């Protein structure tokens, strides 16, 4: 029996590929869909290697594929709800920063609170997102900025690490290795 619905995953991949088609990873010439794919691969790896406790693998994978659509494209909550269902739209909304809040700290606290109100499959996406983002920082980042980003990752791990042991371990390893940039 498959762990996830391949047709729904392909529909989300195609949707994300379309709405992110003109975007690049900031500071690079790499297509942004690469980031979307790596987050989804982290989640799929976690689902396939340790599926116990994951009640809805589709939710985790669909949210991974769609996690930046509201925040970074013209995609609306209603569009996601119509295409992928209420639970997926709510998960993606929770994973989207509220830029009305004035500070990064307030945005992070708000985001984590909204994510924690969702099923743990959504928590897994945030862990996977930060795992993939803890690559070497952009050249223009200072050591102070890199340290702040690493510290945010520690906060994320503390808040959401109970979602999945493998993702928590991977994020801790990335945090430990990221210290070289701080």
Short précis:
By secondary structure, this protein is an all-alpha fold.
Uncertain stretches of 5 or more adjacent residues: none
> What percent of the residues sit in helical stretches (DSSP H or I)?
55-70%
* General form: globular
C-alpha termini separation: 45 Å
Strand and helix order:
HHHHHHHHHH
What structural class should be given to the helix and strand makeup? Answer: mainly alpha
β-strand percent reads under 5%
Radius of gyration over all CA atoms, rounded: 16 Å
Number of strands: 0
Discrete helix count? 10
Round the mean pLDDT to the nearest integer and report it: 95
Biggest sheet record: none
Protein name: Phosphohydrolase
Organism: Desulfoluna limicola
Record the SSE blueprint.
Blueprint: H1 6-19, H2 33-49, H3 57-66, H4 69-72, H5 77-84, H6 86-94, H7 104-116, H8 120-133, H9 143-160, H10 165-178
Helix pairs in contact: 1-3, 2-3, 2-8, 3-6, 3-8, 5-6, 8-9, 8-10, 9-10
How is this structure best described in words?
- With 182 residues, the protein is an all-alpha fold.
- Helices cover 66% and strands 0% of the residues.
- It is built from ten helices and no strands.
- The protein has helices at residues 6-19, 33-49, 57-66, 69-72, 77-84, 86-94, 104-116, 120-133, 143-160, 165-178.
- Helix 1 runs parallel beside helix 3 (57-66) and helix 8 runs parallel beside helix 10.
- The chain is globular.
- It starts with 5 loop residues before the first helix and ends with a helix.
- It comes from Desulfoluna limicola.
- This is Phosphohydrolase.
- InterPro entries: MESH1 (IPR052194).
